[in-house]
Every structure is written in structure tokens, then in C-alpha cells.
Write a structure and sequence with these properties.
This protein is of the alpha/beta class and 535 residues long. Helices cover 45% and strands 13% of the residues. It has 21 helices and 13 strands. Strands 8, 9, 10, 11, 12 and 13 form a 6-stranded antiparallel beta sheet that branches.
Length: 535
């Protein structure tokens, strides 16, 4: 087959959103004409669209090496590096070209995305603003600036930028991304009705990720009545969404009424769960597969003519979740399988033991009256070289106060933080650091197994908390609580959980450094108290 024929077939597949087939066909053409920079360029773009970052990097680098210095190639190369966390390399590429072409807005925008990816919002905004000064209509720069402004806490300005981009992109992939980001920002700001409208972008119309539903009946729209209707409602984006959006189903079943009928189509593994939870509905499994590059969802168990319309679960969010108070206060819309719960507890006795312990120990009413247990064991070496296994805990000086579980639902969300602030105004809170010394045979490789209560305990010191600190600029913000960073004389035990915690906390710190800090649970009064009590 000729190169021309292969390129034509690849272009046709790309136009039909069969991106994998297009990639394979372009690669086949490149084998016949390995010096073709045009084919290499198409492969670079396709690899990027398919999130195949190393391949995209390779082809972009090949194009640049062979003298193709178009801005789309330069910025595409930098973006492929950025997506692989090769931030320094991406910055070097962009800065090198900026020294020669400082008027190119796309280069400044590219620099901004690298800064944003590293969590450097201030510098990201500087570069996005420069891109927009040079090119006021640069949608990519404005969209990214909107995201950065929201990350920085400037919600109104960020929403303004995202609103300007939400329907402005011509490319369907960028359009969907802009709509989803705008929807999420609206929802986070409490503008639920507008947020759900924008959230329709999740369907990604015109992209390779759009799901096509193999149904002959009409899709339900909000203007149509629900009472007495016969509806098929399908899950949509995955397990999490199917479970999350299912909270609207009791409302929908109520409004359809006994004269109507509801069919629910969910992931096959969720079928038993939904059958238990919604016995009023006929629950079937949907099937999703890729046919000629198109995502197709079919419903093999659906009887012909059984329904007069269909919808996806998210279609009902604008109807049933117009304000925060519309959400259920209890997530009781899904029902567990008692037999499977029993089987799980039988296979995991440590879980059953912990549940029994929780039943026997009331929750503390305050941070200040709670004991805190380090469940992992460590090896302590004394001055004579003797090694002992130790677990530690902190026990409060304040007497224990039990939380009234019956009143818990009426307490404010941050009542524990309000309480500790009020207590600290009256005086410091103190805990004793107790070291429990293990005996031979005490388990050190399983944190779920307790040691006997009669083990020797050493009061090793006192922890004193005398004032609140805000999370935003407190001493604990930029450190990792890695259990393997230990002083001389203390070594890890053979507990495998320690290594797992170490790896997880390292990742956690990296992610936290790249995210905007959430609002501190300390309220304004606590913040004022923290400022007043600083030395």
C-alpha cells in the first residue's frame, strides 16, 4: 500500500475519532517514508492527544532537530516534557526560544502551565498575564489563568476567566475541558444550578471520549414529565459516579410513581448492590466497548419497547440538587449485603476486633481529652547497646469526657476545633508521652495486634500545646510525617506498614505542595486567637 493511501486512511480514522487506528496507520506510513516530517508531525500531535507523552516528546524533538521551529511544535514539546514532570527541561526549552522570540504569547502561556504544574501559582499568573498582554484573545492563557486564580483563592476573577472560555474553544477536547473546569468552579462556589448546566461538558461531545448510547428511544430532558414514565437510567462515567449520582434515585423513583417503570443500567459488578438498594427498579448491566474507535454503550438485557425514554444519572442533578440542602444528610441509599459483610469480617478478624473495640470505647468529646496511639513498633537501642521493641502513645492530663453521640448531628461541623481553641484560652493542654516496652513474642510486624496491658510503660516526657496555629502558615504545613525519618537510637521494626506509610507520605507532601491550601478548620475566632498569641 502506498504512503499516500496510508496517510489518507489515517486522516480518515482521525476525523472519525478512531485515534488509535490513526496512530497505527501513520506509523505504518512512516516506516515506508521515514524521513517524512509531515507524518512525524501528525504522530506527535496524535500521541499527545492519546496521553502518550514519551512518544510525543520523541516526535516533537525529532521535528525540532530537523529544523521545524513552529511555535506549536515548541510548545507541544514543552508540554510533553511537563506532563512527564520534566519541569526543568520544559522551562529550558521555553526560555531558550523566548530569548529569541519574546513577543510569542504561547511561550509565556507554556511557561505558566509549567509553573502551575509545580504549584507555583504566583509565577504562573505572571506568565499568563504576560501572554494575555501580548495576545488578549489567547483562550488557553485565559483558561489557565482562571484555574490559577481560583487556586490562589481569587474566586470571582477566576470564574470570570473560565466563563469567557467555557463556550469559546473550537476544538472539542479543549471545549470539554473548559466546560468541566467551569462547572467544577461553579459547584465549588455553591452555584449549583449553573454548575450542573455547565457540567454537561462531561459528555465530551465530538471527542474520542464521548460515549454513544445504543438506544432507539428519545433521551429524557428536564422539560418532559416524569410521573408515570417508563425510563431507562444509565450510569455514566465509572464506578464512582454511578455510586455518587445514585443518591438522586430515591427522588426519581418517588416521582415516577407506581404506575411508571424505572430500569437502571449499571456496571456489571454493581448490579447486585443496586438490586438490593432499589427493589422498585429493574436493574440490568450495561456494556461499554470501543468499536472502530468509538465508545459504545449497549444494554443487552433491555427488553424491546420496555421504555419510552432514557437518561443518564447526571441528567437529574439540576432537577433534584439545586442547592446544598437538597443533598441527603445520610448516605443511606445503598444497602450492604449482610452475607458478604459477614464473610469479609470472617476473613479479616482484625477488622472485627477493631469494630468490637470501638463499640466498647466511647468517642472523646475533645481533642484535649483524647489519647493518641502510635500503632507501629520501633526498635530502641540504649546506651549499653541493648535493643528493645517499643510502641508509644500520648495520654492527656485532662480527664476523659465522652462525646454524646445522640447530639452529634446537632453540633457544628468544626466543633472539635472550636472546643480546643476555647480550652487553650483557659490554659495549655498537656499529654504524657508513654513508651510501652514489648516482651519477647510480642508481635512487631502487625500493627493490628495489641500487646498485653501489663507491659512496662515509661513516662518519657510531656507534650504541651499552648496556642492554636493556622494551617495556612503553621509549622506543620511543609513537612512530611515520614515514620522512617528517625533519630539516632531508634530504628524501624519489621512492620511492613512503615515502608508503605513512608512512600505514601512522600507522595502526599509532593501533592500538597502543588495544591492550594484548603480553608483551615479553625474558624475566624481561632484565627484571631492564633494571631494574638503569637510570640
Amino acid at each position: 500500500m502506498s504512503v499516500e493511501t496510508l496517510v489518507a486512511r489515517a486522516a480518515e480514522a482521525e476525523a472519525n475519532l478512531d485515534l488509535v487506528k490513526a496512530l497505527d496507520t501513520y506509523e505504518e506510513a512512516l516506516k515506508l517514508e521515514p524521513d517524512s516530517l509531515e507524518i512525524a508531525g501528525r504522530l506527535a500531535v496524535l500521541a499527545f492527544r492519546l496521553n502518550m507523552w514519551p512518544m510525543a516528546e520523541k516526535f516533537y524533538a525529532h521535528l525540532i532537530t530537523h529544523g521545524i521551529h513552529e511555535m506549536a511544535i515548541i510548545t507541544g514539546y514543552a508540554a510533553a516534557l511537563r506532563e512527564q514532570s520534566k519541569y526543568d527541561e520544559a522551562v529550558d526549552v521555553l526560555k531558550t526560544v523566548l530569548n529569541q522570540r519574546p513577543e510569542e504569547a504561547s511561550l509565556w502561556e507554556g511557561l505558566g502551565t509549567v509553573m502551575a504544574a509545580q504549584g507555583d501559582t504566583d509565577n504562573a499568573l505572571t506568565f499568563f498575564n504576560e501572554a494575555l498582554r501580548l495576545e488578549p484573545d489567547n483562550l488557553h492563557a485565559r483558561f489557565n489563568r482562571g484555574c490559577a486564580l481560583i487556586d490562589q483563592g481569587n474566586e470571582s476573577a477566576g470564574l470570570e476567566d473560565l466563563a469567557a472560555c467555557a463556550d469559546a474553544f473550537d476544538d472539542p477536547d479543549n471545549l470539554a475541558s473548559a466546560q468541566i473546569a467551569y462547572a467544577q468552579a461553579l459547584l465549588a462556589s455553591g452555584q449549583l444550578e449553573a454548575g450542573w448546566r455547565a457540567y454537561e461538558g462531561r459528555e465530551r461531545y465530538g471527542t474520542a471520549r464521548q460515549v454513544h448510547y445504543s438506544l432507539w428511544s428519545r433521551r429524557w430532558r428536564e422539560s418532559q414529565p416524569i410521573a408515570n414514565s417508563k425510563l431507562l437510567v444509565s450510569g455514566e462515567q465509572g464506578l464512582g459516579d454511578e455510586v455518587l449520582f445514585a443518591s438522586i434515585l430515591p427522588d426519581l423513583i418517588r416521582d415516577i410513581g407506581p404506575e411508571g417503570a424505572l430500569w437502571l443500567a449499571v456496571e456489571p459488578r454493581l448490579k447486585p448492590l443496586f438490586q438490593r438498594s432499589f427493589p422498585e427498579a429493574r436493574v440490568i448491566a450495561h456494556r461499554t466497548q470501543t468499536i472502530d474507535g468509538i465508545l459504545q454503550r449497549s444494554f443487552p438485557e433491555l427488553e424491546n419497547g420496555a421504555t419510552d425514554g432514557w437518561a443518564v444519572m447526571g441528567d437529574f442533578l439540576p432537577l433534584y440538587r439545586q442547592q446544598v440542602s437538597d443533598f441527603p444528610t445520610e448516605n443511606a441509599f445503598l444497602k450492604p449485603d449482610p452475607a458478604r459483610v459477614k464473610a469479609y469480617l470472617g476473613a479479616h478478624p482484625e477488622t472485627r476486633a477493631f469494630m468490637q473495640w470501638m463499640d466498647q470505647h466511647p468517642l472523646p468529646a475533645s481533642f484535649a481529652v483524647a489519647s493518641y496511639y502510635g500503632i507501629n513498633a520501633f526498635r530502641f537501642t540504649d546506651h549499653a547497646g541493648a535493643v528493645r521493641n517499643v510502641r508509644w502513645s500520648t495520654v492527656p492530663e485532662a480527664p476523659f469526657e465522652a462525646l454524646d453521640s445522640a447530639a452529634l448531628a446537632t453540633l457544628p461541623r468544626d466543633f472539635l476545633f472550636d472546643d480546643i481553641v476555647a480550652r487553650l484560652k483557659q490554659g495549655p493542654a498537656r499529654w504524657h508521652l508513654l513508651l510501652t516496652v514489648g516482651e519477647p513474642g510480642d508481635p512487631t510486624d502487625d500493627a493490628t495486634k495489641q500487646w498485653p496491658d501489663d507491659r512496662r510503660s515509661i513516662d518519657a516526657g510531656i507534650l504541651t500545646v499552648d496556642r492554636p496555629e493556622l494551617e495556612e502558615d503553621g509549622a506543620c504545613r511543609d513537612i512530611t510525617f515520614d515514620p522512617l525519618i528517625l533519630p539516632s537510637g531508634i530504628a524501624p521494626s519489621d512492620d511492613p506498614l512503615l515502608a508503605a506509610r513512608s512512600a505514601a507520605y512522600s507522595t502526599s507532601l509532593t501533592r500538597r505542595a502543588g495544591e492550594p491550601a484548603p480553608r483551615s478548620a479553625l474558624d475566624e475566632a481561632a484565627a484571631q486567637a492564633a494571631q494574638e498569641n503569637r510570640p
